[in-house]
Structures are given as C-alpha cells and as structure tokens.
Specification:
The chain is an alpha/beta fold. An eight-stranded parallel β-barrel has the order 1-2-3-4-5-6-7-8, surrounded by seven helices. About 50% of the residues are buried. The protein contains twelve helices and eight strands. The two termini are about 25 Å apart. The protein is globular and about 55 Å long. Strand 7, helix 10 and strand 8 form a beta-alpha-beta unit. It has one domain: Alpha-Beta Barrel (TIM Barrel), CATH 3.20.20.70. The longest helix is centred in the N-terminal third of the chain and has 18 residues. Bound molecules: the ligand O=c1ccn([C@@H]2O[C@H](COP(=O)(O)O)[C@@H](O)[C@H]2O)c(=O)[nH]1. The ligand O=c1ccn([C@@H]2O[C@H](COP(=O)(O)O)[C@@H](O)[C@H]2O)c(=O)[nH]1 binds next to strand 8 and helix 11.
Length: about 280
C-alpha cells in the first residue's frame, strides 16, 4: 500500500493544503438548530461530510465530541469515518492517544489496523510517555500506509510549560520530539508519514523544524486567534510542509452546505496566499 505521506501529498496537490475539523461543540449544535443529542451529532456530522468530504484534502473528526455520547456517539464516529472515506477525503482522527507501549499497541490496532471499525488514515498522538512508547503506532502505520501526528508545540498557552522545558542534554522537550520524528521520516519522499502538531498561535517557535520531512499540522487558526499570515512567523522556511487546520471558523458557517463550502474555500484561499504552491 502507498504510504500515508504519499497519499497526503497527492491529496494536497489535488485539493489544496487544508484540513477541516468536525468538532460538534454543544454551542455549534445549538447554532445549527440541532439538539445536543445523538441525533444532532449525526445530522451535524453528515452535513459536514456532504459539504466537504469531496473537496477538502483532510477531515479531522475530534473524537471527544463523539465520545461524550458514549457508544452511540462512537457508532456515529464510525459511520462518519466511512462516509468521509467514500467521499474521498483523508481522515485524521484527533484522539491524542499515548500510554505505555503495550497499551499503545491496542490503540494502534484500534485506529491503524484496516480491520478495525474505527480505522482511519492517521491519528494524533501524545508523546509524554516518551516518543519511543508510540513505536507500536509507528510500526502499524508503516505497515498499512497510515500516519501519526505527534504533539510537539501545541496551540494552547498551557502547553509551553511542558513542551519548552529543557532536558538534560540542553534541548527542549519539544525539540526532542521533533528530532525523533525527523529520524522516522528519514529518506521518505515526497513526504514522510509521521507528522508533528505545531500550533499556529505560538509565534516564532525558536525550534528547528527544517529536517522533519513529514507534515506539520497547524491548528489554532480562526477561533483560537491565529490567521493564515501567522503561519509565516511560526513556520518560516518550513512553510512547504504545513497543513493548516480549521474547525469552528469553518463550522460556524453551517448548517447551509453551500455556506460551509464557501467558508472552506475562503480559508483555503487565505492559506494559499501564504504557503508555497504544491
Ligand atoms: O495543539 C493543538 C492540538 C489539537 N487541537 C485541536 O484542533 C481543533 C481546533 O479547533 P478550532 O475550533 O479550530 O479552534 C480542536 O479539535 C482541538 O482539540 C488544537 O486546537 N491545538
């Protein structure tokens, strides 16, 4: 099977550098005139798929908003993933998993084994039990053409205290994550399958992202205050690897399908103005 990096590179070339999240916040459900229940969740998700599944490179369901409805919410997550795949977008499940290696193996089986009902193209993962503990995810992703996006410098202000802490060898925690993911992507072309999450809100990172070789997912755009122009400051010479990610900024245009499409088109134009052509 083709690697995730190759598939992502093609999706970005064909559809443009954009990831849109499915984050059915209670406030958005209300704004869309939907009940804050499983039916509302289902209608919301199906509308996003209808509007964006056939035009956006990557769609990123936020697992928390499905999990809060228990098993019936997870069933809707499963069907949303299937619908997105049928519509042709890559599915990145934002689930930020991480644990000791033997448990990570089970998370890997859940999300990166094609026989699982919640199998997706890629997942987000937390490295704070050590990047090495995520090895079962990296291995299964490599085997089945999947991807893993590891948190490095997150968009929330609280992240810096942990991520910018300095380790015994003088590197920050974030730089150790960046360096380990860079190693995994060594030699991959046109793009590695192992990405990093770097928030668009954080300003000049002071970190070296030039050797990552994989995609740099940039949340924090729109509702969290960053704009496309901020990508220049955050990513500098690594802009060509950036995958901008918007959730509420686009979703708040719904429930009208045409308005959702127009919102996604608008943020894509903003991002294209900043990012090098791919
Ligand atoms: O550093 C991070 C990592 C993940 N996220 C997630 O992205 C979306 C952002 O939603 P917006 O509505 O565009 O603010 C959300 O699912 C977060 O959990 C992030 O924001 N920052």
């Amino acid at each position: 099977m083709e690697s995730f990096g190759t598939r992502l590179h093609r999706a970005i070339t064909e559809r443009g550098p954009l990831c849109v999240g499915i984050d059915p916040h209670p406030g958005l459900l209300a704004q869309w005139g939907l009940p804050d229940d499983v039916q509302g969740l289902e209608r919301f998700s199906r509308t996003v798929v209808e509007a964006l599944g056939d035009r956006v490179a990557v769609v990123k369901p936020q697992s928390a908003f499905f999990e809060r409805f228990g098993s019936r919410g997870v069933a809707i997550l499963e069907s949303t993933i299937r619908q997105l795949r049928d519509a042709g977008s890559l599915v990145l499940l934002d689930v930020k998993r991480g644990d000791i290696g033997s448990t990570v193996s089970a998370y890997a089986a859940a999300y990166l084994d094609p026989s699982s009902p919640v199998y997706v193209d890629a997942v987000t993962a937390s490295p704070y039990l050590g990047v090495g503990s995520l090895a079962p995810m990296f291995e299964l992703a490599a085997e089945h053409g999947g991807g893993v996006f590891v948190l490095a410098l997150t968009s929330n202000p609280e992240g810096a205290a942990v991520q910018r802490a300095v380790t015994a060898d003088g590197r920050t925690v974030a730089q150790t994550v960046i360096d380990e993911i860079s190693q995994l992507n060594m030699g991959a072309s046109p793009l590695g399958s192992f990405g990093l999450v770097v928030g668009a809100t954080i300003g000049d990172t002071g970190h070296d992202l030039s050797g990552v070789g994989g995609p740099l997912l940039a949340p924090g755009l729109g509702a969290q205050g960053a704009g496309a122009a901020d990508l220049r400051t955050v990513f500098g010479s690594s802009l060509a690897s950036v995958l901008p990610s918007y959730s509420r900024e686009v979703l708040s245009a719904g429930p009208d399908v045409a308005a959702l499409r127009a919102a996604a088109d608008r943020v894509l134009v903003d991002c294209r103005a900043v990012l090098p052509a791919r």
